[in-house]
Model the fold of this input.
Amino acid sequence: MNLKQASEKKRYAALQALWSIDGDLVSVGNLLPRTVAHAHSRVALLFGSQEITYQAWWNYVCLVADVLRSQGVKKGDRVMLYLANSPEFYGVYFAVWHLGAIVIPLNVYLHEKEMEGIIEDANPRVIVTTVEMAKKLPAVESGKVCALKPSWWTESEMTEHSQTVAQTSPDDTALILYTSGTTGVPKGVMLSSRNIVTNALQVLTRFGSIASPQSSDRFFSVLPLFHVFAQNACMWLPVIMGASIIIVPRIDRKAIRDGLEKEPTMFFGFPALYGLLVLMKTAPLENIKLFVSGADALPDKIRAAFALVYGRKICSGYGLTEASPVLAVDGVHEDAPTNLVGAPLPGVSCQIRDENGDPLAVGEIGTIWAQGDNVMKGYYKARKQTNAVLVDGWLNTGDMGYIDADGDITICGRSKDLIINKGFNIYPQEVENTLLKHKAVIKAAVVGRNEGNVGQIPVAFVALRKGTVVTESELAQFCKQNLAPYKVPRSITCLDDLPMTATGKIDKKKLLAS
Done:
């Protein structure tokens, strides 16, 4: 263990002690009231012209908790949130924890048919939404929908409501997050209080090595709040710090620019969002001291363009919903490729294993396995799928990568995305990064397509910079100049744009079906 790792370990232990009661981590229901006790007058949420203090936020939480209690919600019940980025999302989310119930945020971009399957699987006691958004929900049982009222913010300031937080164990399920389903049917990832608080403290410790977070910081909350990356970075973390949160209702240029005028200091995004900032060219980012990219692989081209336009570095992060979600964040290697994501967070152990589950040597590529108190409890009502990825406390991430002699992780892509052609392994991310080096290409996706007796062949889809023209043969020749022959895509299709998921990932499932 080097001096930096020892220092991180010490800071992490101190944070754990600070957020523990009787020797164990606090439950999530206690996060907000503990911060309110010493930061009640501090501005917590900024949204448009609204500035909501921690005390006002807590008052709203208590009112909503009473409303949900009157609708039969009790400790251990499941409550679904169908809400856009807003102060209401923050209020209801913590109101559910106030009751000791389980939060289930629903992806607001899903089709009605997709929502039906998740609602049926989760079977929530109540679905909390707005009157307008309720119209988009599929048919549900009468009385199951709780529509928020705008007046509750004012009413919460004028009336008394129960402030008693339900007592729960740190190992009780607090959150169920349904995966995006890009590789199959969505599964409900169950996270406990221990998972959530642990990962928030692990991330805060790592950020302490990079940007010295303070309670005076302002977090930029533009990522969709139904996604675990946004919840960790823009909900749990700032609440623990007692920091302010700038809520941006949607990802578009005007909303982003309006939010940036409120002078954030911490910025979290996925690659496509940083690409948008590059296109904006003059976004006011001068007050931001930390940029972190997650949710998908950050292309070298986007980080380089961002550095060129704004003179700032983006830190690469790595994780998955099943790990609450962060496993590593790199804030050291400025010149390394973006798929180098740094050392595991304090309290996280990682191994590289072969297809038989045996550990591999330093520098060898295999599947990344992770262990720590941030690793999920399992999949909701899916023991078979849980047992397939959780073995003796270790999580099979499904990602390919290697660990170097310094202990840093480099990601090579999803194991399900691995293309095997005539015995050769082809990692799509490597080919995609090569295509993105071409000046005309702004997005790239490489997938494996079954081709008769040959097995899989790599095929590519690209989106071109507006106003540029390039042929498939030119792109193929470019690949041949930078890649081994077996890695060169057999076909390259140019599209106006590539389909994206709500969390900013290229939807390879749709591309394969095209």
